[in-house]
Amino acid sequence: MKRNQRTEKDETVYESTPERVTAFSDGVFAIVITIMILELKRPATPTFGALFAEWPTWISYIVSYVFIAIVWINHHYLLRHATVATWRLIWANFAHLFSVSLIPFLTDWMAETRLQSVPVVMYAFVFLLVNITYLLLIWETMGTKKSTDVPNRARRLFHVRSVLTNLIFGGAMVVALWHPYIGFAMVGACLTLYLRPGVPGMRMKM
Amino acid sequence: MKRNQRTEKDETVYESTPERVTAFSDGVFAIVITIMILELKRPATPTFGALFAEWPTWISYIVSYVFIAIVWINHHYLLRHATVATWRLIWANFAHLFSVSLIPFLTDWMAETRLQSVPVVMYAFVFLLVNITYLLLIWETMGTKKSTDVPNRARRLFHVRSVLTNLIFGGAMVVALWHPYIGFAMVGACLTLYLRPGVPGMRMKM
Amino acid sequence: MKRNQRTEKDETVYESTPERVTAFSDGVFAIVITIMILELKRPATPTFGALFAEWPTWISYIVSYVFIAIVWINHHYLLRHATVATWRLIWANFAHLFSVSLIPFLTDWMAETRLQSVPVVMYAFVFLLVNITYLLLIWETMGTKKSTDVPNRARRLFHVRSVLTNLIFGGAMVVALWHPYIGFAMVGACLTLYLRPGVPGMRMKM
Amino acid sequence: MKRNQRTEKDETVYESTPERVTAFSDGVFAIVITIMILELKRPATPTFGALFAEWPTWISYIVSYVFIAIVWINHHYLLRHATVATWRLIWANFAHLFSVSLIPFLTDWMAETRLQSVPVVMYAFVFLLVNITYLLLIWETMGTKKSTDVPNRARRLFHVRSVLTNLIFGGAMVVALWHPYIGFAMVGACLTLYLRPGVPGMRMKM
User: With a cut of 0.85, is the ipTM above it?
Assistant: First the structure.
């Protein structure tokens, strides 16, 4: 991968490339987030009782919807900075999308078993995967770009957040073995750190 | 969110941003509108009788298809005015898409129970959600743009229509508790107010 | 819909509009053509016999895939000519997409009943709908554009083909009542008239 | 198809055309790769045992995911070179997408039967189809473009790789009749030849 040999001209000729990566990613995100909702089971009887009896399902779907939305926003925020679709960026992105597409599977499992221990452990594990693959994307995007809009302080804060979130997701896995509700709450709390895709050191341009 | 500090330069650098939001939204709309049709059940026997016996299903699917089309047209019309994908625009859009993706679920429930009371109440409720989240989008799009193509009179008419449609959808929920057919008709009638996405005060540019 | 009042400026400002219509349409086409294949049933036993026993299903799916491909190519060919997404264009397009999204449903019904009479009649009927809605699109696209690349002779040939294909699809419906195989062959033969999206009077620019 | 008569002007007027082909293809790829994951069955009990008991399914899904990713990367790499969406390019692309959309069907069959002979033969056959249709795309894209970035040596290497990979996929079909595990490994090994979409004679510009 002779990325360093790439000239200005090449980037101009193939500038449409990163756009196809984001278009493909958006397709995957749109399918994952929509199919999850479409597969909701219809209540057995046409009563409010039957509808509200499904509340654990409803809550876990709404929560997962919000989580996927947060992941999309961060993905969207990051890939704007990508100017070239390198080989490593594409594979990091595929790994990221793979992790994301496991979320509905685990949401479903977790809702069906009403937040039992093992499904919540695996749910936290999937978010750990989503987070790690996102870090690969940050690495590849920020590392290859020597622009002035990513100052050193921001870069450092990005790394602090990365280590922190990985520790929390990993911790949630362990905690969920005994206390699935607390483990689930930890996953949710950790995702709030991504509500704003940028870090304090960067001007919020979204 | 230092939106006011954004300079002309920033908007130029990140001008592709709102386009990715609409592309993502189109993906979700396309999935919602298509899956609904693809999940139609095949008639038990190869006869016209078996096909036409499903008429309540057919009608509710065609009606929901037209409704989602109207929602898409209005979304499409509005987001053309968005020049920057702000944090609030993105979240209002996710809430809007969430509401839209509940439509097939309720269409199905309504068709299965042949327009019983509770499913129709919830159907009207989902359209109330779609409407409220659309108002958030209008707010965010029109509010952040001080262009001359949204005159004050148009803005006022937009707000009159908003209050009116919310009242009708809310009314349909109450009416459907006793008269589901009338409640369903009210939802349909209300949506005709959105057949033309613009309001009389604005030149129709679609 | 003051389409005639639109000035050059408006078209420039909103030039991204028809692109969103085609993007949305592509989403629907991609879902329809892919889901049809994904829903194929797995053979009961891991033998070539079990796989080939499903040959009527295979043939009807391959044929429908080719048919949808032809419809997409014509849609793609036509919408390149659209410069503005008018209200009528958008609704004609929604009607067209609705017809297209019925194809998998009928392919499935036809394959399951092994080309019995009624499913083939309805299959021909759906293609009649696809054709009629395509004519609406032609009308709207060619009618609003006074460019030199659609000469009068081409326009006339377009109309001859339209009438002809409507007659054949309609004829196939009637014939299929007694001879479903012949009716199905008529649908296929008729679609070959669309293999080349243009008409002889126009230079083939695809 | 008077492709040779096309002038510079035509290409400028219709330059959006190949983009719609890639957008449509991305939609199909996104659906194929995502639905495969979404259809994973939930384990019967909420235990790690039940989850890991499904390991043959997990492995075959992860492998197919990687394979489809490789196919997408090559498709993406090749279509960047396409400047005009010719009639033949569009049909080669539809044949390619058809082959790709058969992968989940066979992954599922293979996983369910735990790598029995016939499903693996058919799996290798589908990759042979994917490869042959990709060669048609190469032919159409490279053949119609007389640019300097495809030197003769690269073109020759492309053809050597084509013949080689076709032989391996064909060989895998034969071998899988007696040794499905070896046949499956051959398919995997062969795809590594496509890990880098370019050939040594071309500068890696991805």
Answer: no
